[in-house]
Each structure stands twice: as structure tokens, then as C-alpha cells.
Design goal:
heterodimer; A: alpha+beta; 8 helices; 15% strand; B: alpha/beta; 6-stranded mixed sheet; 21 helices; 31 strands; 16% strand
Chain lengths: 253, 840
């Protein structure tokens, strides 16, 4: 089937966060205790129970007091997905026929390599250490329904459909360059940015590291045949992630 | 709304002022963004704060809270100074040409007041606010608009005082921003350009709230935008069914269908009808309110059935009457409660302890009750007021009952949105736990109260024991087992109680048979042969060729005009008319001002099935079937609810003047009103404080260095009103967990406040903690050569939940006890506070 995708248009987004809540509702994710950190944006980052969120970005404006951007942050469902490349457990991360990168928690071994490999800092790990992230509502899209976020978005700032059509739609709306059109083999979540991606907090050219390419091409096949896989994973973990650290609490007062 | 939500897509210029639809009415932005995308519409946002809506605006202008009339007065001046008004519309469809009583004087002449002001009673004698009448009793007119006493010239004289320079010093809006907004709105005075406005509590919660709305209504009339697709004056209602609740007579001064509640002096039905039925001598005016007697009598027949008859004045005597001048609105009600004049209180689907202005007073008032019934989804600050902050439970005698009611998805019924669309909804799940639908609770209470009256008599049992209650099957005790919402809806629609004939035709033509549902309100009678709970909903549940049709349950998606009217989707009051005053969208010949936006159109050759003559309206349901105005015999004026038939640039009906005039909020940073020195505040507001015997709780402090910052309350997307329904939802609480205050970087620097720090916000009435949100979205204002800071707080939080108190307290601890003189809506959008770093 044709590859499906999301088109995210910050120019249309009003920051209502219906997408955040609809995602929790569909995926039955618990609400988390948070604190107001001096703004509207909350929670402050993706969590194992928060697959997508709106970032409220204030940038200077010469005309208005400020330019206020609302940017959806989520798994980008890369064609060349770093997470899938690095994942040592076959089937823990898999590609759906629609093109989404989905997770199978039963197969996830909790090595956390996928986070290190993700150019967008997306995967999070639940209390059992299993990878937990947006799967484009695989149970919806496999039934020809739009993901919960796109379904609920009142302004069409998150649109879902045939990826090629999404690109055409953005181009028709005047976006000659669509973020993610060609990057990493083409992202499943495309962004219609009016300005450079940096303004919205995205890398101009998202990339996965050479180490990862090496792992994918050389070490991972070895691990599949059981030679030195665990050791290799441990080495790579150290190189890519570093020693285990206690994460600083964002909400610490 | 004169128009409806989808219609926003038809606009060329969309003004959001006194509202923040992106945050509070997100779905409206679907249509606003579509107008921007598809027709290049301009979004203009005027707000003290750079909001989520402002983030989408083409033009943004900041104004100091409480100065909207100055802002709009300057716009009115700009429009006529630059000849941007739609002259033919103004001359034909408004009272611009009417000659006013020569004794009428205005604030520019009388140091800030209109003629007839009595400072002692703080009221106007309106005897000079009248038109000059000709010998037939019709207002005299000067269609050239040149007579110095005509409305148009008086309006000019009044607003000539609102120069851009003056406005800028009052509002704090830079002159170039004012002109940018004025130019954008003014560009729609052409027949093929239309502007609309989305407003909410930012306009209404002021001591000049009604006049704020009126000021822009005048502008829309001047530009010819009322009645047009993509135009009108659109109130974004703050709750999904608040339109329905006002339609159904929730307020103290109206019964269902906006019919005034009788006063004590209107002793019988004949007197009421004589005094309360608008009359006109203008032959081209439809004067629809002339039908009021039919609607009142049909309403009485609906609620009292056979017990209401000609012999007993259709039970008019059983209707509650207000004393002359009595005002039972919220602020007065809680004032009376505070003074111990209530025994009991039903807090039904509301949370007064957080929602009412001046919460400390409200909460204390609750402690004076003997009993209170709290009907809600959750216990809340109201039901548990007796154990709230500062309360001594041992001293409080109020007995509180909590009746758990179910949510809207646990019951069936209709819901009315801002666009007057009445849509039938179905039950998704069974009520949780012991909760019941509101109507089931009411049914239980009614059965018991009625039985008590029957058993014990009581002072005045007739109005209660005689109520019709035919809402379903009865049990052995005579109680309705379960209320059937369809039967309620049918009672609201109305029935023919006898065979009803149109006697204007010979021979009389049968309109409807006894026992059938009324076709719509046109068939209602004043002789007791029809019943109708609410005349504006007549036609919502009807009968055609013997078949009963719930019009509200329709789901047709046809849109032949392409304007998004969707006439077959649910049903809109009145008579499925999607845009009211739509006869103003055509010229006197009945042809659309803008053919690309043809809402209705007179087809002079097509056969009209109703009259069997050529000539019929096409498009939306027109405001009455009469031929266009140019028809000399039968043509009618477009503003059918106004007795003159035209839109009111001069509006003598309000308490505070026929033209909006700028007055400062009760609490403001200025010692004097920059427009004139004598009247700082609206001279007709009821002052609760500052006279003998006034309560210390009602204190206010204006221009007081202890409270130097202007403050507004508002809502965020994630919470609903006082937050009772949303604070209990962890998904929503996660996104907006705590009380916050937004302030400018400049003010934060001055006060040494860092972003995210806890601060104390206080007013003359109370204080609360909040998290500081330091932002460039607020900027200091330059007003009368001084710097004025404004801050803002949401009003969704309360001590009761989250249970650990982490959410914070209600913003209404800070707001003043003061209301608009016309409707008594509290002034929660402009009051004075201080802000300090929290101690400890």
C-alpha cells in the first residue's frame, strides 16, 4: 500500500492541545502530575505516557510583541529509522504497512539504544523499561482511520493521509520545501515550516550517527547470529548513551 | 450569534475583540483559518494580551482592559470621517435618518451624562430620548442625513470627541495600530465586503458590558454587515448549552422565549398584554413582538394545561411577579443571601463559591443558609464551602445535600449552540453510580413537593400542583417512572389543543388538527387553542402528513448555496433560519447586496406555493415571507424584532444612554475619566459600597497605589469554567495544573519576579498565590503619559481539588461586587491588583 503520513502545519495550529489529550484518550495513557513551569507548555517533554505534545515557542517579532509558535512534537516515523536500525531485538520496533514505526513491548528488551539512535529524541521507557512512543495509532490506521491526534485537530494543523498527497497539499498551500520530504529517506511526519526548521526547534538536516550506521551494517548482523551480540550492545550502549545516569527531575523545585 | 459558526468562513475581515476563540472556542478557528486560507480574509485581534488567537492574527492591537468603547468610538468616527459607511443600507435599514427630540443632550454637552440624569437615584429619566413623530405617529426622517437632530448627525457630534489621539491616550494603543484596525474594519462598508466579530466575556464582563457590544453593533450597521453571510454580531457562548439555558428562561427577568417576567403592577393578563406588547404605527414594520400575547398564552397552556383557561386569565395569576424595579440577578441574589434573606438554595450545575464575583462574600453568604442542595457531577467548593479556607465548620449551620447528576453523555436530549443550532444527542453510556439525569432529579423532587402541597396545603399551592407533567408512564403512586425527553421536547414545540383555522382566509383554512404538534410559532394562538413551552423552539419537533418528526435529529449534509447553511442538519431557531435579519442582506428589490454571497434572493417570477402568486424567496429561510421592501403594498423592513423595523444606531432602550460612552471601570488606574472630569465611572451602575450600611466585603479601591495593576480574568483551553469538570480529569490537569498569573517582563523586572516563581496576587478583597508566567505577550501601556501594567489570571482553580491544594484558589477571590446597569454582569475583566513575590 502507499506510504501514509502526517502533515503538521504550525501556521494552522492554535495550541489547543486537543491532540495531546486525544492521544492519551485513545491510547489510554495515564495523566501525570505536573507543575506550571512558567508557561503554557506542559508536560515539559515527551514521557512514556505522552506520545505527542505541543511546544509553545516564543520568538522575537518586529511587528507584534512576540511571535508565538505552536509546534507538535512526536515520533517522525523516519524511513531510515535510527531506532529500527539499532534495535537488537527483532520485532520490538517494526514498520507497519502504512509506514509507521510501531513498538512491540513484548519483544522490547529495554536496552534504550533506540533513544540514542533517534535524531529527534523521541523514544521513552515505561516503568518496565519498555520503549513507549507514538505508533501513529496503529490500531486506528490499520482500520483506515486517522490517528487520534489528526482526527481531533480542529484546524487541520495535523492532517493524515497518503504521504505523497500530504506533500502535494503542503506545496499547494505555498510550502515549496516540506520538512522531512527527503530527510532520512523521508519522514512519516512532514512539517510545513514557514521559516527555517531551527526556528521551530528542528535540525536543518536531521541525521543518524556514523556509529549507528556501522552498528547496523556490521555488528547487528553478527548479533543476530548470536556472536558477541550482547557484548556489542553493551559497548554500543556505552558509546552512544554513556554510563547510566539518574535523570534530573525536570520539576524539581 | 446573529450568524453561526460555519458562517465565519464567509467573512472578509474577522475581528476578535473581547474573546480568545483559539483558546476558548477552538472549533471556531477551523472556520476562521478557512476564511484566511481560502478567501484571504484578515484576522484582526484586539486584546490586552497577545493571545493564542493573536498568534494567528494579521493585525494585532493591544488595549488597556476596560477601554473598548473608546477604541470603538474612534472607529465609528473614522468610518464616517472617511466616508466608509454603506450609505444605502444606513439610510434604508437603520434609524440614522430619524429625528430625535431637540431637548435630547449628550455627554459632550452635559459633563459626561445624557439628558435626564438623576444623580441621587443614579438613573435616567428617558423622556428626551425619543423621536419626533409625524401626525401618523411614525418617526420623522431626514433621508439626506443632514438635519442636526437626526440620529446620524447626533452620532457624529457624540463621537467627534473620540479623536485617534484621545483614544490612544485612553486605551494605550499606539495610534498607528488603531488606524490599522480601523482601516481593516472600515474596508467592509462596501456591498461586496463583509466583516464579522467574535466576542465573549471580554466585552460583556464590564460595567459598560452591554454598551461594548452595542458600540460594535452600530459599526456593523454602518458598514451594512448585519444580516449578511460572513457578517453579524456573534457572541461566542462560553458553555455548550448556555444558549439553550437563556432560550429556556434561566434568567430571572424572562420566561422561555425571551418574554419578560411580569411585574406586580401588571395585575392581570389584559394589562400585561396592553403594556408589554410592542406597538408600531410604521406600516412597513413587521413588529414581530406584536405576537407576544400568543406566545405567553401558549406558554401558560403548556405548563398548566386545562387548568389555564379563559375564565382564570390562563393562570396568569400563578406566574411569579417581580416588584417594580426588582432585580434578582446574581450579585443581588448573593447580597440578599449574605443578609440572611434566603432559607434554602439549589446550586444546580454550578459552583458559585468559585464562579461568582467576590468569592469570599459568596462563600460567607452560603453560610447564612439553612439548607443547600448541590446538584453536580462532583462535590466542589460550593458543596464543601463549610470546610473551606477560613471557615469554622462548628459555627456553620447550613445543611448541605449533594445530589449526583450525570454528565451530558449519560442522557438523551437537545443542546443549543451559539449559532442557535438545536441538535439532538443520544445517551452514550448509562449514568455512573447513583447519578441521575437532571430531569430525573427534578421529577423526583417535583413528585414529592407536589405531594406535600396536596397533603399540607401551604401558602400558594396552585402554581405547583397544577403543573402539567406528562412526560412518561406513571407508577402506582402516580409518579412518572422515567422522564421521556421526547415528550418534553414536544411540549416545548407545542400542540394544537383544538382544530385551529386561519380565519384571515375565506373560507377559514385548517392550520392544524387537535392533538397534533404545531408546525411552528406562526400557528400559535392567544385564545388557548394552542400550547407551546417556548415559542422560538416551535417547529423543532413537528408533524407533517401525520408523521412526527424530530427536526433536531436530522443529519442532512446538503449545502446548495455553498455558504455552509446546512439547512437539513439538525434545526435552528427561529424556524430553521440560519442567519437572522437576513432580509438586510438584500436591497429593497430583494436582490443580494453581494451576489457572490447570496443568502436570500427574491425571485419575482417563480410561483409561490403558499400564496399561489408569482414571487418567492430563495435561499435561507427569510425573516418573514413578505415581499421585498420596494413592494409598495406589502413590502417589509428587515429588522422584524424592532418595532420600527430598522436597526438602532440610536438605542434608547438601555439604562446608560442611547449612544455608548466611555467610562472607566469601577477600579481603574486613573483618577479621572479622560473624556470628561465629572463622571469617572458609568453613572448608572448600582454601587454596593460607599454608602451607609454597606458591607466591608464589597470594598473597592480605585487609583490606589496599593493596587496599581489592571487585572483581567480569563479561561484556558484545558479547563472549563470553575474547573469542577476538568480539574478531576488528570489528562487536562496535566496540561494546566496550577493557578498562574501572566505579567510582562518589564513588570517582573520591576518587582524582581522570575518566571515560574510563586507570587501573591491581591486586591482590596482578597489574595491568592499563583505561578508567575513572565512573558512578552503582555506589554506595559502608555496611558495619559504614564506607564500602566496589566496582568491576567485564569479562574479555573479552587481549593477543593486537587485535594492537596496544589491547584490554587479561585480568581474570583479578587473580583469586585459590581455589575453592568442593564444586565448586572460582574466586572471581572477590569479591576485593580497588586503582585508580590510570595513569602517563604
Amino acid at each position: 500500500m502507499a506510504r501514509m503520513g502526517l502533515l503538521v502545519s504550525p501556521e494552522l495550529c492554535i495550541g489547543c492541545r486537543a491532540c495531546q489529550v486525544a492521544c492519551k484518550s485513545w491510547n489510554q495513557l495515564p495523566g501525570e502530575m505536573t507543575k506550571n513551569r512558567g508557561g503554557y507548555e506542559n508536560p515539559g517533554d515527551l514521557t512514556p505516557s505522552l506520545y505527542n505534545r505541543i511546544r509553545f515557542v516564543e520568538v522575537p517579532s518586529d511587528k507584534d510583541p512576540i511571535r508565538w509558535l505552536f509546534v507538535n512534537q512526536r515520533c517522525m516515523h523516519c524511513e531510515e529509522a535510527g531506532c529500527m536500525k539499532i534495535c537488537p531485538s527483532p520485532g520490538a520496533l517494526y514498520r507497519t504497512p502504512e509506514g509507521a514505526v510501531a513498538t512491540n513491548k513484548d519483544k522490547c528488551i529495554g536496552c534504550k539504544l533506540c533513544l540514542a539512535a533517534c535524531p529527534f529524541n523521541v523514544p521513552r521507557y515505561n516503568e518496565k523499561g519498555k520503549c513507549s512512543k507514538c505508533d501513529l495509532c496503529v490500531d486506528r490506521i490499520s482500520n483506515k482511520m486517522a490517528p487520534a491526534c489528526a482526527k481531533t485537530c480542529p484546524t487541520g494543523a495535523i492532517a493524515y493521509g497518503d504521504r505523497a498527497e500530504m506533500i502535494a497539499k503542503a506545496q499547494k498551500a505555498g510550502y515549496q520545501k516540506v520538512y522531512g520530504q527527503a530527510d532520512l529517506g523521508g519522514l512519516g511526519a512532514l512539517y510545513a515550516f514557514k521559516d527555517g526548521p531551527k526556528v521551530y526547534g528542528y535540525d536543518e538536516k536531521p541525521q543518524i550517527s556514523d556509529m549507528l550506521v556501522f552498528w547496523h551494517n556490521v555488528l547487528k548482523p553478527l548479533s543476530y547470529i548470536g556472536i558477541g551480540g550482547v557484548a556489542a550492545a553493551a559497548v554500543l550502549h556505552y558509546v552512544a548513551v554513556g554510563p547510566h545516569k539518574v535523570k534530573e527531575d525536570d520539576d524539581h523545585e | 450569534m446573529t450568524n453561526h459558526w460555519i458562517d465565519l468562513k464567509n467573512s472578509d475581515v474577522i475581528l476578535c475583540m473581547g474573546g480568545n476563540p483559539a483558546a476558548n472556542h477552538p472549533l471556531s478557528m477551523k472556520w476562521i483559518m478557512r476564511a484566511k486560507e481560502q478567501r484571504g480574509a484578515k484576522l484582526v485581534v484586539v486584546d490586552p494580551r497577545y493571545t493564542q488567537t493573536a498568534a494567528k492574527a494579521d493585525i494585532y492591537a493591544a488595549l488597556r482592559s476596560g477601554t473598548d468603547i473608546a477604541f470603538l468610538g474612534g472607529m465609528i468616527k473614522y468610518i464616517y470621517d472617511n466616508n466608509l459607511y454603506f450609505r444605502e443600507y444606513v439610510v434604508t435599514y437603520t434609524n440614522a435618518s430619524f429625528l430625535v427630540n431637540p431637548d435630547f443632550k449628550m455627554p459632550g454637552q452635559l459633563e459626561g451624562v445624557f439628558s435626564g440624569y438623576d444623580a441621587k437615584t443614579r438613573k435616567y429619566d428617558k423622556k428626551t430620548w425619543t423621536f419626533q413623530m409625524d401626525e401618523k405617529g411614525v418617526p420623522k426622517k431626514d433621508l439626506t442625513l443632514k438635519d442636526p437632530n437626526c440620529v446620524f448627525q447626533l452620532m457624529r457630534k457624540h463621537y467627534n470627541r473620540y479623536t485617534v489621539e484621545k483614544v490612544s491616550t485612553i486605551t494605550g494603543t499606539p495610534k498607528e495600530n488603531l488606524l490599522e484596525v480601523y482601516k481593516a474594519i472600515g474596508s467592509t462598508g462596501k456591498p461586496d465586503k463583509v466583516a464579522t466579530v467574535c466576542y465573549a466575556m471580554g466585552w460583556t464582563q464590564h460595567t459598560v458590558g452591554v454598551q461594548n457590544v452595542r458600540a460594535f453593533s452600530m459599526i456593523q450597521l454602518m458598514l451594512g454587515n448585519v444580516g449578511m453571510a460572513g457578517g453579524g454580531v456573534n457572541a461566542l457562548r462560553g458553555e455548550s448549552n448556555v444558549q439553550g439555558s437563556t432560550d429556556a428562561g434561566l434568567l430571572f427577568h424572562i420566561i422561555p422565549g425571551y418574554i419578560p417576567v411580569p411585574t406586580a403592577s401588571l395585575a392581570d393578563l389584559a394589562t400585561y398584554i396592553d403594556k408589554m406588547t410592542p406597538k408600531t404605527k410604521e406600516p412597513r414594520s413587521v413588529n414581530w413582538w406584536g405576537n407576544r400575547p400568543k406566545y405567553l398564552v401558549s406558554h401558560l397552556k403548556a405548563i398548566y394545561g386545562d387548568a389555564a383557561n379563559k375564565e382564570n386569565d390562563f393562570a396568569y395569576a400563578w406566574m411569579p411577579k417581580l416588584d417594580e424595579g426588582m432585580n434578582c440577578s446574581w450579585l443581588n441574589m448573593f447580597d440578599e443571601m449574605y443578609k440572611g434573606r434566603f432559607e434554602g438554595f439549589f446550586a444546580w450545575g454550578q459552583n458559585p463559591a468559585c464562579s461568582g464575583a467576590n468569592s469570599t462574600k459568596t462563600r460567607t453568604a452560603l453560610s447564612k443558609l439553612k439548607w443547600m442542595v448541590n446538584v453536580n457531577l462532583y462535590d466542589n467548593e460550593t458543596g464543601s464551602f463549610w470546610k473551606g479556607p477560613g471557615m469554622k465548620p462548628a459555627d456553620i449551620q447550613t445543611e448541605v445535600f449533594l445530589l449526583p447528576c450525570c454528565s451530558s453523555v449519560e442522557k438523551e436530549g437537545s443542546i443549543s449552540n451559539s449559532g442557535r443550532l438545536v441538535q439532538w444527542r443520544y445517551k452514550a453510556i448509562e449514568p455512573v453510580g447513583q447519578s441521575l439525569a437532571d430531569m430525573e432529579i427534578l421529577n423526583e423532587i417535583y413528585f414529592r413537593v407536589k405531594k406535600l402541597y396536596q397533603k399540607e396545603g401551604g401558602k400558594f399551592p396552585a402554581p405547583v400542583v397544577n403543573l402539567t407533567w406528562n412526560y412518561g408512564e406513571k407508577d402506582k403512586d402516580g409518579k412518572i417512572k422515567h422522564v421521556n425527553p421526547h415528550l418534553v421536547a414536544r411540549e416545548i414545540n407545542g400542540y394544537y389543543l383544538a382544530d385551529v383555522y386561519d380565519k384571515t382566509q375565506t373560507p377559514p383554512k385548517l392550520i392544524g388538527k387537535k392533538g397534533e404538534l404545531c408546525v411552528n410559532f406562526v400557528s400559535l394562538q392567544a385564545d388557548g387553542t394552542t400550547s407551546c413551552g417556548n415559542w422560538i423552539y416551535s417547529g423543532s419537533y413537528t408533524q407533517k402528513d401525520g408523521k412526527i418528526i424530530n427536526m433536531m435529529a436530522r443529519r442532512g449534509k446538503e449545502d446548495p448555496t455553498g455558504l455552509g447553511l446546512y439547512a437539513n442538519w439538525a434545526w435552528t431557531w427561529p424556524v430553521n433560519r440560519r442567519i437572522v435579519y437576513n432580509r438586510a442582506s438584500v436591497n429593497p428589490q430583494g436582490q443580494p447586496w453581494d451576489p457572490k454571497r447570496a443568502l436570500i434572493k427574491w425571485n419575482p417570477t417563480k410561483l409561490n406555493p403558499a400564496t399561489n402568486k408569482p414571487g418567492v424567496w430563495e435561499g435561507d429561510v427569510p425573516d418573514g415571507p413578505a415581499p421585498p421592501l420596494a413592494d409598495e403594498k406589502a413590502g417589509k423592513l428587515p429588522f422584524i424584532m424592532k418595532s420600527d423595523g430598522v436597526g438602532s444606531l440610536f438605542g434608547p432602550g438601555l439604562a446608560d444612554g442611547p449612544f455608548p460612552e466611555h467610562y472607566e471601570p469601577l477600579e481603574c488606574p486613573l483618577e479621572e475619566n479622560p473624556m470628561q472630569a465629572k463622571h469617572r465611572i458609568n453613572p448608572t451602575i448600582k454601587l454596593f459600597y460607599g454608602k451607609e450600611g454597606s458591607l466591608e466585603e464589597d470594598v473597592f479601591k480605585s487609583c490606589d497605589t496599593r493596587f496599581p495593576y489592571v487585572c483581567s480574568t480569563y479561561r484556558v483551553t484545558e479547563h472549563w469554567q470553575t474547573g469542577v469538570m476538568t480539574r478531576h480529569k488528570s489528562w487536562l490537569l496535566e496540561t494546566q495544573p496550577q493557578m498562574f498569573v501572566e505579567l510582562s517582563k518589564e513588570l517582573a523586572k520591576e518587582k524582581g519576579i522570575g518566571n515560574g516563581e510563586k507570587v501573591t496576587v491581591s486586591s482590596a478583597r482578597g489574595s491568592l498565590w499563583a505561578v508567575a508566567v513572565v512573558t512578552d505577550r503582555y506589554k506595559p501601556f502608555k496611558v495619559m503619559n504614564t506607564t500602566i501594567h496589566q496582568v491576567g489570571i485564569p479562574w479555573h482553580f479552587g481549593w477543593h481539588y486537587p485535594a492537596d491544594g496544589s491547584g490554587g484558589e479561585s480568581a474570583n477571590l479578587l473580583t469586585p461586587t459590581i455589575g453592568d446597569p442593564n444586565v448586572m454582569i460582574p466586572e471581572s475583566k477590569a479591576f485593580m491588583v497588586n503582585i508580590e513575590k510570595a513569602r517563604g
